Amino acid sequence: MGKLGYRSKNGLRTKAASAIVDQPTRAEAVTALIWRCAVTAASRSSSSLQSPKLSVLSQSVDIRKKVVPPLSDDSIGNLVGYFAAHTDETEVELQGLVAKLRKGIKELNNSYAKRLPKDQALQVVCKSFKDADELIKRDDTNNFYVGTDLCNYKLLYGVSFGWGKPIWLSNVPAASNNNVASLVSTREDGGIEAWVTLSEEDMAAFEQDQELLAFAFMNPSVLEVEPITRKSAL
Length: 234
Description:
alpha/beta; Chloramphenicol Acetyltransferase; seven-stranded mixed beta sheet; 6 helices; 7 strands; acyltransferase activity; acyltransferase; transferase; HXXXD-type acyl-transferase family protein
């Protein structure tokens, strides 16, 4: 498992922008970068010497503001939707991956979230899992990744249980689950922390990826007496 903190001297969101998605969100840009670097690492590691095949990313989405009518930010429950994006392993250019993520969000908004409050909710939820399952089981699918994003969940740093508001929190995926990227915002500077789990072989290559290191610093310390002061240009 690896922990990343994201900086952007050269502007990750700028690099990820295209005519299709001219203003990528922070999470879209970071998720696309991790996906790209993970696929590249898998192709280089000893565990993945096959010819290029399909790579699938299942992305979870907070649907509180996407359902009709929208729910409040403090609504309790696992109010999450899912979509699956996929790409050929030879087509992992950053802008293209962002476009696939944006397309997935739009499809979720149109055909998933808006129909949940109606009597079609069960069918909609089941279909999203069925679509992802069909992609995973395809003969040409080589790797499957899971992405989670809590970057815009406002309650994370606002809840106090009597000890004051948190100065740091994380959403750490289980170490037994490989190919997971879990994103959460830092408290003050607009940055993103990502916990990534890969196989040992893939992680060794992933951590040396020069494009990744141009925008991220590895294993940032959270044991700081003063509030985190690193700034992000994402």
